[in-house]
Design a protein that fits this description.
With 399 residues, the chain is of the alpha/beta class. The chain folds into two domains: 4-162 and 335-350, 3-Layer(aba) Sandwich (Rossmann fold); 166-329, Rossmann fold (3-Layer(aba) Sandwich). Helices cover 37% and strands 11% of the residues. The strands form two sheets. The protein has a four-stranded parallel β-sheet, with helices on both faces. It has a four-stranded parallel β-sheet with strand order 6-5-7-8, with helices on both faces. Strand 3 (119-124), helix 5 and strand 4 form a beta-alpha-beta unit.
């Protein structure tokens, strides 16, 4: 973990202001068999993936009637956010839009604009820094602004990545503790192991995640950056490791010295392209025979959507069954009241409410609190697009 002075993310904070509404920004998912292939076409647009290949992936959705749970989970989260907002006396209506399925970002922007809103605070349903978890959302929001002709009409600011916010960390601590207790009560807790599962991404994308002012290991950044900037998973992996360690520290009073591993799941694309490893199924197969039970925490996700339901509850469970290992898959943060409250805490960091004072920026690791404004080279890709964020040195709209 880097020394705090070398990483400037915590200094890139925007002053609080008054917002008109909140946009809950999700990924989206199909809601019936006829939606599956069109949805997958949206996700893979521009990559030249034929429908025959998409149909190979579609069987995950077909298994569940063509319905991804993610949209219903976002409806539940929207309702929970509205309840928490009302409890705090904030006048902030919540709108909801997705990147890849209805309601799309453009639909939500047109709706909130028609309702008279002009200053929007965006809550994204991802906690960690990466191109797919942050910059891609900002790019797609900028595209939606352009497509709707609202670029000069709406201000969109995004809340910071919240991987180490207490509202995200504590529900994960509670879930892992409950999972270890379940193993113990089943008689399989003598030699437990915990695996923290997160989405695998291409290694080059992971290595380029986050700002390039410092490497996660604290060593100097080469002059000019470049592809040799950091080859170890970048800030995406460093954030996941830091949170996993926090969670294990949080259960150590009851379950000390339990070994744990950060593992990856749901890789896709060209098999010749390196992705983050180890895959969870390979990691399960490599566990020592002395391990009596496994707790799997989908720490990289905020809801039990398709990749949790299929890759963990089916594939990882089958791998455990094959070697006779008891597995307890604990829930994601979902609509846990602590998580919902934490999201509104993040809103109140940025929104000047009735008392006129922003909330203190909370963080549980020395990596945070993470930045409100992303540098221009943060999570950079080879073909960058316009985003809703300005460079840290500039003015304008937020991260």
């Amino acid at each position: 973990m880097t020394d705090a002075p070398a990483l400037q993310a915590a200094t890139r904070a925007l002053d609080a202001r008054t917002y008109d509404c909140i946009l809950l920004a999700g990924f989206g998912g199909p809601e019936g068999q006829d939606d599956v292939i069109p949805y997958l076409r949206n996700v893979t647009a521009g990559r030249g993936v034929p429908d025959e290949r998409l149909e190979e992936v579609a069987h995950h959705y077909r298994h569940f009637g063509g319905i991804s749970p993610i949209n219903e989970q976002n409806r539940d989260l929207k309702a929970a956010l509205e309840e928490e907002i009302a409890k705090r006396g904030l006048d902030l209506p919540v709108y909801w839009g997705n990147r890849f399925w209805a309601p799309y970002f453009s639909d939500a922007l047109k709706e909130l604009h028609a309702d008279g809103h002009r200053s929007v605070l965006v809550l994204v349903t991802t906690a960690f820094s990466s191109y797919s978890g942050c910059r891609a959302y900002r790019e797609d929001l900028a595209t939606a602004l352009a497509d709707t002709g609202l670029t000069d009409e709406l201000r969109l600011d995004k809340v910071r990545q919240y991987f180490d916010h207490p509202g995200f960390v504590q529900p994960n601590i509670d879930a892992v503790r409950a999972g270890l207790r379940e193993l113990a009560q089943s008689g399989k807790g003598a030699q437990p192991h915990v695996m923290f599962a997160t989405h695998s991404i291409p290694s080059v994308a992971a290595d380029g995640s986050g700002p390039r002012e410092a490497r996660p290991d604290g060593t100097p950044v080469p002059t000019g950056g470049g592809d040799e900037w950091y080859a170890g998973g970048g800030w995406y992996v460093e954030q996941q490791r830091a949170v996993s360690a926090l969670i294990m520290d949080g259960v150590a009073d009851e379950f000390p010295d339990v070994p744990w591993t950060l593992v990856f799941q749901s890789r896709s694309g060209d098999p010749r392209v390196p992705w983050l490893e180890p895959d969870i199924n390979d990691a399960i197969g490599a566990l020592d025979e002395s391990v009596s039970g496994l707790v799997v925490s989908p720490v990289g996700f905020v809801s039990d959507h398709m990749e949790v339901a299929w890759d963990l509850d089916n594939e990882a469970q089958e791998t455990c069954d094959e070697r006779g290992l008891t597995m307890v898959r604990v829930p994601t943060v979902g609509v846990d009241p602590q998580f919902v409250s934490g999201l509104i805490d993040l809103v109140e960091e940025r929104h000047v409410g009735p008392d006129g004072q922003p909330r203190e920026r909370a963080a549980l690791t020395d990596l945070g609190p993470w930045q409100d404004v992303c540098p221009a080279d943060c999570c950079l890709t080879r073909n960058p697009k316009p985003t809703i964020a300005s460079a840290a040195a500039g003015g304008g709209i937020g991260a």
